[in-house]
What we know:
The structure holds two protein chains of two kinds.
Chain A: E1 3-14, E2 17-28, E3 32-36, H1 43-50, E4 58-63, E5 68-69, H2 75-81, E6 83-86, H3 98-105, H4 112-116, H5 122-134, H6 150-163, E7 168-172, H7 180-193, E8 198-202, H8 206-212, E9 215-220, E10 223-228, H9 230-234, H10 237-248
Parallel strand pairs in A: 3-8, 3-9, 6-7, 7-8
Antiparallel strand pairs in A: 1-2, 1-4, 4-5, 9-10
Helix pairs in contact in A: 3-6, 5-6, 6-7
Chain B: H1 2-8, H2 10-29, H3 40-65, H4 73-101, H5 110-122, H6 140-164, H7 169-188, E1 200-201, H8 214-241, H9 243-253, H10 255-260, H11 265-291, E2 293-294, H12 301-314, H13 319-337, E3 344-345, E4 350-351, H14 353-371, H15 379-383
Antiparallel strand pairs in B: 1-2, 3-4
Helix pairs in contact in B: 2-8, 3-8, 3-11, 3-12, 3-13, 4-5, 4-6, 4-11, 6-11, 8-11, 12-13, 13-14
Amino acid sequence: xxxxxxxxxxxxxxxxxxxxxxxxxxxxxxxxxxxxxxxxxxxxxxxxxxxxxxxxxxxxxxxxxxxxxxxxxxxxxxxxxxxxxxxxxxxxxxxxxxxxxxxxxxxxxxxxxxxxxxxxxxxxxxxxxxxxxxxxxxxxxxxxxxxxxxxxxxxxxxxxxxxxxxxxxxxxxxxxxxxxxxxxxxxxxxxxxxxxxxxxxxxxxxxxxxxxxxxxxxxxxxxxxxxxxxxxxxxxxxxxxxxxxxxxx
Amino acid sequence: xxxxxxxxxxxxxxxxxxxxxxxxxxxxxxxxxxxxxxxxxxxxxxxxxxxxxxxxxxxxxxxxxxxxxxxxxxxxxxxxxxxxxxxxxxxxxxxxxxxxxxxxxxxxxxxxxxxxxxxxxxxxxxxxxxxxxxxxxxxxxxxxxxxxxxxxxxxxxxxxxxxxxxxxxxxxxxxxxxxxxxxxxxxxxxxxxxxxxxxxxxxxxxxxxxxxxxxxxxxxxxxxxxxxxxxxxxxxxxxxxxxxxxxxxxxxxxxxxxxxxxxxxxxxxxxxxxxxxxxxxxxxxxxxxxxxxxxxxxxxxxxxxxxxxxxxxxxxxxxxxxxxxxxxxxxxxxxxxxxxxxxxxxxxxxxxxxxxxxxxxxxxxxxxxxxxxxxxxxxxxxxxxxxx
Lengths: 249, 388
């Protein structure tokens, strides 16, 4: 499978603290991947770098078959390249309806003029309904997003990512604060999405990662500690020492 | 399309209906076309108030919908007033000069006329030369173009520099205050080319309509202001109702999220900032012929702060709220400061409203912010509950 995103030799320092240290990691098309690691391992910083929020001190971030560098691009340009991001805290537009939230995310021209003159079309409405179906919010399309439950907001945000039709989806702790049933549904949504695009899930919760049943990358102190199946990495002695051991300590 | 827009936004229809009825009512009661119950000067006050409502609507879009607390929109309002005032003053002075020189035995040369106009306009600041910025003053069309172009360009350049550097929140507010202050201070100078602190005056005399009385002119400008407010309201209601409204409200609520959705946030802010600046300028261009005079004090920083206060009291994020706030507070303000409110003698001290009105306004602002964040417009939510 061809490489979609290649991060190589990336380092970033905040006030002397090395959040990311010579990190190299690759993602293939239509791959589901979990990134785990203890607090401060650099998971969120890694996402910030890929999405353009943080500029690394050194290293390369190469995207797609044309081998574009993402480092010179702004957040919105990177998003338009096909990288979607879900934040740790559910961030949807609480004042607006579920439909408006999805409509805003839908893959359409993004210039102010195009948006100003935008007209509702049948095909857009169908796409919105298909996504609502996928995230289980069909009955809530006309509701104000602020009224949704925590789990529903998380799904809405995932739905917004899907509406963008990205080639790579970066998802930060999607299961945080969810009930067991909600987690199961979230797992299904993500695995379904990973059939057609790359999905990278940053997660804390081992149980959730086990359910995802995918390749796992373990981060520690800003670089890759181990990579492979969950069984493979959890039997790695260093992983046990720095990550799993810590929860018992 | 148009029908569905009105159907989705019934408040727009109600607003336009109310505005039309108000305009007709005032006309029927005016001196020029009706019973004369409303004096010409009060018609002018109402016309000016409609212009203030228009800039308040613009302010609501930039602040209430897009979350940019601009404290400098009165600079654009003033520039619009200056632009139209230059033509008014030039054309009227020219007419007067030609009339007075006509009785001379030798017909004056164009140079003599031009010198005499320059002397008349700029004598007050010790000059008789026409500054470069008056190059188009003899053409109404070009000067009306300036009403839109000058503030539009200023907003575009200022906004581009500010938004590109991602200046947001209170820092942006301070920057806009600095802009309007700098402009005001510059215009106060005698060599600014706009008559320093004297400003432009006699703007109520419309060249070509010398025979028309002020009573009729006041109604004409009143109608023009009402029309501009109606069109401006409709335009902004359309802008904020569709997908554009979704995106700019998204920027207000979570700028980063909108960015990660792939929208170039800076372009949207620039669009909103510039378009509202242009509408503010149009409001100013209609306001000052009714006020009769414009001077740099009009664009002092406090004016733009009042604008924000009107919108906050009226209710942010709903266009009719801005209209209510601007009309209510500015009319109340002229009642209090114009000696309309009786003084309150307390024995040991007499409360004179000309001094204490600002305190009352300040307290109301704090009270609204703390207890009624939705403002006066929020009352409508109790009356007409939206079906969820």
